[in-house]
Design goal:
The protein folds into 3 domains: about 80 residues, Winged helix-like DNA-binding domain superfamily/Winged helix DNA-binding domain (Arc Repressor Mutant, subunit A, Orthogonal Bundle); about 100 residues, no CATH class; about 250 residues, BirA Bifunctional Protein, domain 2 (2-Layer Sandwich). The two termini are about 50 Å apart. The strands form 4 sheets. The protein has a 7-stranded mixed beta sheet, with helices on both faces. The longest helix has 15 residues. With about 475 residues, the protein is an alpha+beta fold. A hairpin with a 2-residue loop joins strand 3 and strand 4. About 35% of the residues lie in helices and about 25% in strands.
Length: about 475
């Protein structure tokens, strides 16, 4: 069996049991090479490897200072012999020395004055133990434990690898083959020059067991986003996209939410510094203002509408698409999947940052039954058979509903989103069309049901092992 040059040097320097450092020094090669190639020599049966661990203790900076200047309790005892007051002690003597001097029975405190209770031993055991360690001696176990507790010494361990030749070790020069350096890789240059014919290639252990690599896997949230997109595309929808940072105009005002609505409070919405300009179409802005003031009976201000927010729903994107792409009379169907942000506490079923699935159908012939049919078809394609609709309220849709699905494993219904028909106050100022079917659905909640999960926060923990364990559906 041909040996690598480094392996040959290691064996030549190994005349008995030697540490890896000794072998490296004698063979004139780096210690890292000795440690690396010793494993291959062990696999070939030429050396035995062993390891020894050495525990050592050393004085800390505080331990060296106490050894030179005296222990705080010794200084407290000296002060007590002079009848000094407690206030005359240093902070270290008060916090450390006093407790140990009292514990040792050296001093007592009477009316704020220190009194020597008994004579301190000439050879204080703590000082003796430190001197022993400073002189590279071995302290008693109880002494070492006490010094470690007081952080006067530190403990460290070092490991030494030893190599010992086996009877199978080849004789000097035997089995070492050519002095030519073995090649690890067959390169293009070797093939072109023909030098591969004379090259010596390093042997590989084809029977070695290696850990199988984990295949690349998309996060389950990404997989569901792709699946939802495919479902809506199959149903004839186009995808719409928009920025996560929005003006309050598109996030609230265009959706007929009054400017004093509780959802606009800091307790519910994340605001950003600065402001965003209103749309250049002043006529459309005037229509929105008129609707607000006529219906909500309050003053509408541009200052509030220009505030910058992290969008609280992807319905802000729907509003912008109604204005930009839906002014003609042709039917339109759009969907979006995007991040939204709510200023609320997180728990097992709530997040401050999550995905929302948005959809709108713009068609004068659309009915409430069409809305129910779209949602029912979507959730069936997603894997839910039992779907329930319940009346609800949203500021910008009328009528409105909540959609729930039945989860057989938990034997319960779970609400997954809201839907309805945009109020005329929303769609008429934006695109002069009515009705417009709309919905905003959760993404993480159905994913929890499909994967039998109990905590919505698990999706976003930094846990590679959890991702690896998930099944690809």
């Amino acid at each position: 069996m041909a040996l690598h040059q480094v392996e040959s040097k290691i064996l030549s320097a190994l005349d008995g049991r030697r540490s890896a450092q000794e072998v490296a020094q004698k063979a004139g090669i780096p210690l890292s090479s000795v440690l690396s190639f010793s494993q291959s020599l062990k696999e070939k049966g030429y050396v035995c490897l062993s390891q020894e661990e050495k525990i050592s203790v050393a004085l800390t900076d505080e331990g060296r200072r106490f050894l030179e200047a005296g222990f705080p309790e010794e200084r407290v005892y000296s002060a007590a012999q002079k009848g000094a007051s407690l206030s005359s002690l240093s902070q270290e003597e008060k916090s450390i020395g006093m407790s140990w001097a009292v514990k040792n029975g050296w001093v007592r405190l009477e009316a704020g004055t220190l009194q020597a209770a008994s004579e301190a031993p000439a050879e204080y055991k703590m000082r003796t133990a430190l001197q022993k360690i400073a002189g590279k001696g071995e302290p008693a176990p109880e002494e070492e434990a006490l010094l470690l507790k007081r952080k006067l010494i530190s403990r460290s361990s070092s490991k030494t690898v030893f190599l010992e030749p086996t009877p199978a070790k080849p004789r000097e020069g035997a089995g070492q083959g050519s002095s030519q350096e073995p090649a690890n890789v067959l390169t293009r240059e070797m093939l072109l020059s023909g030098s591969w014919r004379k090259a010596i290639f390093r042997e590989y252990d084809v029977a070695a067991q290696a850990e199988l690599p984990f295949p690349a896997k998309r996060h389950m949230v990404s997989r569901l986003k792709r699946k939802i997109s495919q479902i809506f595309i199959e149903m004839g929808f186009e995808e719409m996209k928009g920025p996560e940072i929005q003006s309050s105009f598109w996030n609230f005002d265009a959706l007929f939410q009054p400017q004093d609505h509780p959802a606009r409070d800091l307790a519910d919405t994340f605001y950003a510094r600065g402001s965003m300009p209103l749309p250049a179409d002043r006529a459309m802005v005037a229509k929105v203002k008129k609707v607000h003031e006529a219906c909500w009976k309050g003053q509408w201000t541009e200052e509030n509408a220009e505030k910058t927010v992290l969008r609280t729903h992807t319905t802000a994107v729907s509003a912008a698409y109604l204005y930009n792409y839906c002014k003609d009379k042709s039917p339109k169907k759009y969907f979006s999947i995007g991040k939204v942000y709510r200023n609320e506490a997180t728990d097992y079923k709530h997040l401050a940052e999550f995905f929302q699935v948005e959809g709108i159908v713009v068609w004068e012939g659309a009915t409430f039954r069409d809305l129910l049919g779209c949602l029912k078809e979507f959730y069936k394609k997603l894997g839910f058979e039992k779907i329930r609709f319940q009346p609800s309220y949203f500021p910008y849709t009328e009528p409105s509903l909540e959609v729930s699905v039945y989860f057989d494993k938990k034997s319960q219904w779970m609400e997954l989103g809201g839907a309805g028909i945009f109020r005329p106050e929303v769609s008429i100022p934006l695109c002069d069309r009515y009705p417009v079917l709309a919905w905003g659905l959760s993404l993480e909640r159905p994913l929890m049901l499909l994967n039998d999960m109990d905590d919505i926060r698990d999706f976003y923990r930094s846990n590679v092992g959890w991702i690896r364990r998930q099944k690809i559906q």
